[in-house]
Design goal:
8 strands, 11 helices, alpha/beta, 4-stranded parallel β-sheet
């Protein structure tokens, strides 16, 4: 969708002399260096999210704050979110952009977290939680469980805090094709699954099940197993 190009061109529209900070993943730092040069913003400061988490209280004020892969800062309880909140509050950055293709994570509190960082909070934390979650008894306590059927509602909330594009808006995609193929596990995989009974660490059901699934998928603990599924995947690719 050209998120980095959009952010860079938005940054160029800010007043002359505005300092630009770009926070991204380690793997994308080089890419951002190329992009800022290509789009005419060579003076931008580009750091990884790990560097930002470590040094956010030492960094000087930047007028433009760009967080690439912004979902990494979405959850209010994680350290990156707290670092962003501190920096944005302390320096009152005038232009704040969080760019992501996955604003909705497994837990929709990520949307509230982004709304908070963007200065467009979707109500209070408690209001948002009661809107999208319910309390479910679990033994002697209650846990918060995300409600079902909230997709349309959360999509509308997203539109209140940012510019939302769908893949259909940006890409010419072919129709989806859904096909199911089933494969027997190989003798090698069967032996590997059976050998799990001899390993003390697999006594916990979830560990046993996870390792069994990994073996059936073709690799477990760094060991590769012949797998008809992988062979077929290569053929399809």
């Amino acid at each position: 969708t050209g998120k980095s190009a959009i952010c860079i061109n938005l940054a160029k529209k800010t007043p002359v002399g505005s300092k630009v900070l770009v926070i991204t993943t380690k793997s994308l730092k080089k890419n951002w260096e190329r992009e800022t040069l290509m789009w005419g913003l060579p003076e931008a400061t580009i750091i990884s999210k790990e560097e930002f988490r470590r040094d956010h209280k030492k960094l000087p004020k930047h007028h433009v704050f760009i967080f690439d892969e912004g979902h990494n800062a979405a959850y209010p309880t994680n350290q990156i979110h707290k670092a962003c909140w501190w920096y944005l509050t302390a320096h009152a950055c005038s232009h704040v952009y969080f760019a992501t293709a996955t604003p909705i994570l497994a837990n929709v509190m990520s949307v509230w977290g982004l709304s908070r960082l963007l200065g467009r909070p979707l109500g209070t934390y408690t209001q948002f939680r009661f809107k999208y979650f319910r309390q479910v008894p679990m033994g002697f306590r209650k846990i918060w469980q995300q409600r079902r059927g909230i997709e349309n509602e959360i999509a509308e909330d997203l539109k209140k805090i940012g510019t939302v594009l769908s893949k259909d808006d940006c890409l010419d995609l072919p129709e989806f094709v859904h096909e199911f193929e089933y494969f027997d596990i190989t003798p090698e995989q069967k032996r590997a699954v059976k050998s799990l009974d001899l390993v003390p660490t697999t006594t916990t059901p979830i560990v046993y099940w996870s390792k069994q699934l990994q073996i059936m998928s073709g690799t477990c603990d760094g060991i590769e197993y012949k797998c008809e599924k992988l062979k077929r995947a290569v053929e399809l690719a």
